[in-house]
Protein 1
Amino acid sequence: MSHYLGCWGCYREGGTLKKYLLLTSLALLILVGLGIYQIIVFSDGKLHITVCDVGQGDAVIIRTPKGHVILFDGGPDRRVLDCLGRALPIWQRSII
């Protein structure tokens, strides 16, 4: 009997359902937390300038207080995309 106590909820009827509900709730809580973190970090109403090394020079990413994004000199290949991924919030995937 004692070896069943460690996983008591697993052997009851509905134990697996409760486990999945708990895991789903935890994942949802983590996603909401990440969303709130992104909003706090990227919606501060300030001008942000990021400079990225793209090989032949530097790309400059400007994010305005209103949320517009401007890219200067993106370089000859796709290296600037890594920098854009770090400089922009997860929901913003377009630039002016």
Note: Confidence is low (pLDDT under 50) at residues 1-5.
Protein 2
Amino acid sequence: MGVITLLTDFGHNNWFAGTMKGVTKAISPSADIVDICHEVQRLVGSYAEGRPGELIALVGSSGFLEIAINGASAREILDIDEGGEFILKVL
């Protein structure tokens, strides 16, 4: 298959992300699973709705899902190359 990335609001103090990975591997054993982040606090309508330092997701003016951190660089914190692409799969 390919690469499946996980970007969730699950946090790291529970079993949810591990369960999602297990189910994903059961469905597609050859898939590579990459954790992007499990700390997205919420989906917001605009950048201004994010609290300082909060990792947010929003649909931008171009209609694409955007990941941002209010007052910081999500690209640097999530270690994504500038202009790079990644695949987000909603399960």
Note: Residues 3-77 form one domain.
Protein 3
Amino acid sequence: MRELEYKIVRSPRRKTLTISVERDRSIVVHAPETASDETVHKVVAAKRQWIFGKIHHAQKYQALAHPPGKEVVSGESAPYLGWIIELRSPKQRVARLSSRVASWYPFLIKASGAKH
């Protein structure tokens, strides 16, 4: 059997024991100060199948839709603050909001390797 690594966070005000699987797939057990290590280990062992299910959940840990450092192409549209904007090349330095707004607003796009 594979050993689970988890962090125990104890609190004097807590009355129940909870297990959380974080986005980085780390496991955190929140326990009352009065709970013994043996009790915590027993609960984690009992919830082992649930924990593995959460760690290997396909939707929760998908790759980012747009990886950091994505190259922007002129004319591409992107969501921004609830609007869909059209991105223009760095030379034009203007982006147009979706057809819901008729006027133009400046939207600066920094060219890669460009100096300020």
Note: The mean pLDDT is 75.
